[in-house]
């Protein structure tokens, strides 16, 4: 059954991006052309954006409780990133569509090949894209389910909490900390608020999964395209047993140059769309990781610790995946210039050798995605963010211990 469902997500016209584009359309990031569904999606987006604003409003009412405040911040800031993702995707929809069209077109062209090594490379990164897409979806919705189930679990499993709620000493635990224009501490009010919060969590999860997996698959494709380009550059002059003429070699060389220029163009366009979001992501991740780590240390329930740890894993995984794939692209960009060196350049005339030298010079560029104008997305950057989050966590814990001692 699961296999049949996943097969329906595939597309012959989009063998690489099929599931990702269908997710973007399902969650309304790629808006339909028809006016009615288009307006309905825009309305849904606006409702979830307004809901995110109510999460900030609720901070005023819970600011005296450090645990409630941290719980609000870690979810609200992640929701803020989701809102920014959607808004930028909608505002820059023309650019994103252009990137998706280029990736699909370039991928289809490369799949028409008899080269065994290229076929294996394409199959390898396609399988990888499917795994990371489906695993990320599973991780995201596991997190959403945990967030939604936490209030029910806490009420059912903790008799002390249940008694405190009944006598009015403690409020009902919310799915997501948000303000509503009615009393959330009555049973009807709590159920209504939980329904609204659960809907926003599910829809927000759809935003995150569709945007992130689409971006990750595109990053994997960029790396794969560099690897395929390196293979093609090695075949510019043919092989020792089957050399090609100067005219054919010249055509192949120009094709490699054209592909590289076009690839760089879309990598820069992609980076310009992603870079502002990643800058915000880095800041939000530091705060979220700090808040979640602190909650794990102060939580007394083993199950609550487990649930909070799962949320921490999700927060770390989001940023790590971006940094990891950007890091992969960086190293692939350093290797592509070896492609022309692997060709039969040494037995050609000086004019062909000069053209190869020019091509190698053009390939000698460092490609890496950025987080604003301040830093690159690499594994080293990810480690620095973890160090910064741990420093904030240490300061927060010391501050809390000082308050308790007083």
Report on the structure:
The protein contains 13 helices and two strands; from the N terminus they run ααααααααααααββα. Helices cover 79% and strands 1% of the residues. The longest helix has 53 residues, at 246-298. With 406 residues, the protein is mainly α. The relative contact order is 0.11. The chain has helices at residues 2-8, 18-26, 35-62, 66-91, 93-111, 116-157, 159-166, 187-234, 246-298, 302-335, 338-341, 350-363, 379-405, and strands spanning 370-371, 375-376. The chain starts with a helix and ends with a helix.
Topology:
Layout: H1 2-8, H2 18-26, H3 35-62, H4 66-91, H5 93-111, H6 116-157, H7 159-166, H8 187-234, H9 246-298, H10 302-335, H11 338-341, H12 350-363, E1 370-371, E2 375-376, H13 379-405
Antiparallel strand pairs: 1-2
Concise overview:
By secondary structure, this protein is mainly α.
**Class from helix and strand fractions:** mainly alpha
**Annotation, overall tally of beta strands:** 2
Discrete helix count = 13
Distance between the termini: 60 Å
Low-confidence stretches: none
Task: Note the main sheet.
Answer: 2 strands, antiparallel
Shape: elongated
Query: Into which percent range does the helicity of residues fall?
Result: over 70%
Could you give the order of the helices and strands? HHHHHHHHHHHHEEH
């Amino acid at each position: 059954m699961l296999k049949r469902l996943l097969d329906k997500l595939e597309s012959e016209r989009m063998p690489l991006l099929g599931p990702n584009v269908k997710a973007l359309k399902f969650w309304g990031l790629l808006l339909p052309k028809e006016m009615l569904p288009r307006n309905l999606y825009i309305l849904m987006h606006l409702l979830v954006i307004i809901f995110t604003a109510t999460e900030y409003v609720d901070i005023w009412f819970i600011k005296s409780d450090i645990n409630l405040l941290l719980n609000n911040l870690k979810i609200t800031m992640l929701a803020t990133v989701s809102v920014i993702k959607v808004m930028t995707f909608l505002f820059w929809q023309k650019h994103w569509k252009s990137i998706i069209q280029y990736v699909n077109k370039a991928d289809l062209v490369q799949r028409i090949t008899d080269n065994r090594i290229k076929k294996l490379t394409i199959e390898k990164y396609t399988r990888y894209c499917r795994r990371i897409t489906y695993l990320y979806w599973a991780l995201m919705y596991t997190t959403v389910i945990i967030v939604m189930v936490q209030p029910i679990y806490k009420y059912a499993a903790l008799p002390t909490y249940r008694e405190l709620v009944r006598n009015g000493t403690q409020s009902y635990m919310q799915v997501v900390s948000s303000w509503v224009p009615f009393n959330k501490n009555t049973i009807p009010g709590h159920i209504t608020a939980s329904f609204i919060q659960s809907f926003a969590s599910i829809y927000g999860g759809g935003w995150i999964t569709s945007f992130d997996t689409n971006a990750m698959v595109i990053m994997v494709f960029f790396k794969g395209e560099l690897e395929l380009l390196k293979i093609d550059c090695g075949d510019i002059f043919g092989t020792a047993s089957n050399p090609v003429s100067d005219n054919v070699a010249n055509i192949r060389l120009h094709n490699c140059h054209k592909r590289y220029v076009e690839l760089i163009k879309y990598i820069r366009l992609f980076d310009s769309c992603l870079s502002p979001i990643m800058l915000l992501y880095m800041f939000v991740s530091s705060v979220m990781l700090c808040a979640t780590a602190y909650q794990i240390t102060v939580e007394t329930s083993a199950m609550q610790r487990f649930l909070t740890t799962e949320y921490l894993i999700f927060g770390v995984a989001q940023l790590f995946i971006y940094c990891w794939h950007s890091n992969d692209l960086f190293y692939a960009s350093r290797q592509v210039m070896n492609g022309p060196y692997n060709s039969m350049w040494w037995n050609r005339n000086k004019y062909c050798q000069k053209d190869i030298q020019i091509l190698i010079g053009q390939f000698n560029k460092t490609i890496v995605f950025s987080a604003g104008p301040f830093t690159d997305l690499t594994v080293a950057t990810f480690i620095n963010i973890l160090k910064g989050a741990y420093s904030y966590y240490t300061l927060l814990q010391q501050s809390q211990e000082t308050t308790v001692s007083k």
